[in-house]
Amino acid sequence: MFLTNVLFKKAKSKYIMVIIESAVSGHQKTRIRDRLADKMESIEFDPYIQQESLYKECKKIRSMKSTWKPTVYKQI
């Protein structure tokens, strides 16, 4: 009988996919960040108001594979 499934837990991934939302218009985008990093905040272009706006993380969507390499976004 194999007990490997019972003895070992699945390792947590290094990255998670999150939704960031504009503080001005409510426009949402998805981004990927490190699991251990602080909540994401960034200044990005908001297509609803045609200007740059502050985006804040509002929800975690899912975990990402640890072999995936993220694009570095400037955080404030």
TrEMBL record:
<dbReference type="GO" id="GO:0005739">
    <property type="term" value="C:mitochondrion"/>
</dbReference>
<dbReference type="InterPro" id="IPR052008">
    <property type="entry name" value="Mitoribosomal_protein_bL33"/>
</dbReference>
<dbReference type="GO" id="GO:0005840">
    <property type="term" value="C:ribosome"/>
</dbReference>
<keyword id="KW-0689">Ribosomal protein</keyword>
<dbReference type="GO" id="GO:1990904">
    <property type="term" value="C:ribonucleoprotein complex"/>
</dbReference>
<dbReference type="InterPro" id="IPR038584">
    <property type="entry name" value="Ribosomal_bL33_sf"/>
</dbReference>
<protein>
    <recommendedName>
        <fullName>39S ribosomal protein L33, mitochondrial</fullName>
    </recommendedName>
</protein>
<comment type="similarity">
    <text>Belongs to the bacterial ribosomal protein bL33 family.</text>
</comment>
<keyword id="KW-0687">Ribonucleoprotein</keyword>
